[in-house]
């Protein structure tokens, strides 16, 4: 296992992390705990969960798994989150979490799921940071972190505030352009950088041919190749894989064993290959994010990506609801001024996409060739 420094905290965490939101059978507590132990035996020491994963059952499972690690004398770091922002609500949440997790403190505690700067400002005004600071002073949390779905300059602006010690954000071989600017702040502020959805929320393993450019050997799986692509990023502290079972843990550990870092030229080439492979996919560069009607276009285009890759129109609504806290009707204010299309470096037909998202009269049947 490779271990990297978590920002300026002095802690070293495993480059492969354990995400607790995708257990195959959450009711089979013994199997879930065994999956955690298999990861720990392979050197994984970063375990991440949240209060809404399987209701509260992921945190409860973690409580049992981490208790077993302590019994065996295996060191670990614990990460979880809260969406609450008012001090009293944050306090009630963490007290319940500590009981479920069977711990006295949480190593990395996140302001969870920041999806807009306005939302972040509202949560600050509610007092979330003051309460986090109190929790840290009391020893209930050790490091103040943030989980964000912002992209481009917005995520950089969030992180440059200087109040966080680490950040958790989505980043993978198919959407890396959307959040590359986050690393500017990671370096400037000395932050730990934890990656969620390293396999694109399942998109990459579901489309092995599309992502075959990542592979460097015939016997390398696309999952292994996608993880290794992220590990080649020196600024990434750990990558969270949502493990379903022991088999998936062992595959990821095997990828770590066989990993050989790319040279700078090889790394640049694979990034170029990623860009070339995704004609028709929005890369999240954010140049269109200045809609006169206030439509958060990059978020709607990200949802359109899910349909293109998965082939199911309903994937758009699912992505909007669960990832962005939006709905299809939010695209309806579009007046088709075309400003977004003029700004789009890929010349995507954004206006039509917004129209079809807001008014899905018939299922959209479309391949990858969607650039105009």
Keywords:
44% helix, disordered C terminus, 8-stranded parallel barrel, 372 residues, single chain, two-stranded antiparallel ribbon, TIM Barrel
Structure description:
The chain is an alpha/beta fold. The chain folds into two domains: 3-269, NADP-dependent oxidoreductase domain (TIM Barrel), CATH 3.20.20; 279-372, no CATH class. Helices cover 44% and strands 14% of the residues. The protein contains 16 helices and ten strands. It has helices at residues 29-41, 57-72, 87-101, 117-126, 128-137, 152-159, 176-179, 182-189, 203-206, 222-231, 246-257, 264-277, 297-310, 314-323, 339-343, 350-358; strands at 3-5, 12-14, 16-19, 46-48, 77-82, 106-114, 141-148, 166-170, 192-196, 238-242. It has an eight-stranded parallel barrel with strand order 3-4-5-6-7-8-9-10, surrounded by five helices. The protein has a two-stranded antiparallel ribbon with strand order 1-2. Strand 1 (3-5) and strand 2 form a beta hairpin. Helix 2 (57-72) packs across helix 3. The longest helix has 16 residues, at 57-72. The chain starts with a strand and ends in a 14-residue tail after the last helix. Residues 362-372 have low confidence and may be disordered.
Report how far the terminal alpha carbons are from each other.
45 Å
Rounded mean pLDDT score: 89
Q: CATH topology of the largest domain, anyone?
A: TIM Barrel
Instruction: Please give the CATH class of the largest domain.
Output: Alpha Beta
Q: Helix- and strand-based class? A: alpha/beta
Unreliable sequence segments: 362-372
For CATH, the homologous superfamily of the largest domain is named as NADP-dependent oxidoreductase domain
Largest sheet: 8 strands, parallel, barrel
Strand content: 5-15%
| Helical proportion, percent range | 40-55%
What is the number of independent domains? 2
The radius of gyration computed from the alpha-carbon positions, rounded to a whole number of angstroms, is 20 Å
Q: What is the approximate shape?
A: globular
- Summed up, the helix count is 16
Element string (H = helix, E = strand): EEEHEHEHEHHEHEHHEHHEHHHHHH
Could you give the count of β-strands?
A: 10
């Amino acid at each position: 296992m490779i271990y990297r420094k978590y920002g300026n905290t002095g802690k070293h965490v495993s480059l492969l992390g354990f995400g607790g939101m995708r257990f195959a059978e959450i009711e089979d507590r013994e199997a879930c705990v065994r999956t955690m132990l298999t990861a720990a035996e392979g050197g994984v020491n970063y375990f991440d969960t949240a209060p809404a994963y399987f209701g509260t059952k992921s945190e409860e499972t973690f409580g049992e798994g981490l208790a077993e690690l302590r019994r065996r004398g295996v060191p670990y770091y614990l990460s979880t989150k809260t969406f609450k922002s008012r001090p009293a609500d944050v306090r009630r949440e963490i007290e319940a979490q500590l009981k479920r997790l069977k711990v006295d403190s949480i190593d990395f505690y996140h302001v969870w799921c920041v999806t807009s700067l306005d939302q972040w400002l509202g949560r600050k005004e509610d007092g979330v940071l003051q309460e986090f600071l109190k929790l840290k002073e009391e020893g209930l949390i050790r490091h103040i972190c943030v989980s964000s779905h912002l992209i481009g300059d917005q995520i950089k602006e969030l992180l440059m505030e200087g109040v966080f010690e680490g950040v958790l954000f989505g980043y993978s071989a198919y959407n890396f352009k959307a959040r590359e600017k986050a690393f500017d702040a990671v370096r400037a502020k000395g932050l730990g950088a934890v990656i969620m959805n390293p396999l694109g929320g399942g998109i990459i393993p579901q489309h092995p041919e599309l992502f075959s450019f990542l592979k460097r050997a015939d016997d390398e799986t696309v999952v292994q190749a996608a993880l290794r692509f992220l590990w080649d990023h020196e600024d990434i502290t750990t990558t969270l894989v949502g493990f379903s079972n022991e088999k998936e843990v062992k595959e990821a550990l095997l990828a770590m064993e066989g990993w050989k870092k790319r040279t700078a030229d090889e790394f640049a080439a694979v990034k170029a290959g990623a860009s070339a492979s995704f004609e028709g996919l929005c890369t999240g560069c954010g140049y269109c994010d200045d809609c006169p009607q206030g439509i958060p276009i990059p978020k709607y285009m990200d949802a359109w990506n899910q349909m293109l890759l998965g082939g199911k129109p309903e994937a758009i609504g699912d992505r909007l609801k669960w990832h962005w806290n939006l709905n299809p009707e939010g695209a309806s204010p579009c007046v088709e001024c075309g400003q977004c299309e003029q700004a789009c470096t890929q010349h995507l037909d954004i206006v039509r996409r917004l129209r079809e998202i807001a008014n899905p009269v018939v299922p959209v049947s479309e391949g990858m060739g969607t650039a105009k």
